[in-house]
Amino acid sequence: MRRDVFQAIADPTRRQIINLLAGQQLNLNAVADNFDISRPAVSKHIKILTECGLVIIKQQGRERYCRADLKKLEQVAKWTEQYRTFWTSKLDALENFLNEEPIETKPKNK
User: How far apart are the first and last CA of the chain?
Assistant: First the structure.
């Protein structure tokens, strides 16, 4: 099955794994210790992240270490950029409209 980055980040546990590995390299057991799910479930998430190219596993002796490879997230950044640009222009237009409208004041009741 072909997987992509969007599928990888769709799951909150996988996003947490990416965040965890973004700052450090950990062995599989150390990754699993950070979650309240079974080790096989964590391994399944790691497998998906590896298939998507977001996690690289390196064998060191008997241990397998995971590290994040965040270059693939550029695809997500490029995709979301079009929407950031769209909403920025819409909000700028709204600001301009609001600044041009005269402020109506309610007449004071005496």
Answer: 75
The DSSP secondary structure of 67-92, one letter per residue, reads EE-GGGGHHHHHHHHHHHHHHHHHHH
For the chain, the maximum distance between any two Cα atoms, rounded to a whole number of angstroms, is: 86
- pTM assigned to the model: 0.74
Cβ contacts of 49 within 8 Å, gap of 6 or more: 8, 14, 17, 18, 55
DSSP H or E run through 6 = helix 5-9
Q: Could you give the angle at which helices 12-22 and 39-51 cross, rounded to 10 degrees?
A: 80
Q: Would the pLDDT of 11 be above 90?
A: yes
Tokens for 84?
Answer: 């950031």
Confidence band of 17 (pLDDT split at 50, 70, 90): very high
Q: What is the mean pLDDT of the chain?
A: 90
Report d(CA 79, CA 75) in Å as an integer.
Answer: 6
Decide which of 85 and 66 is more confident: 66
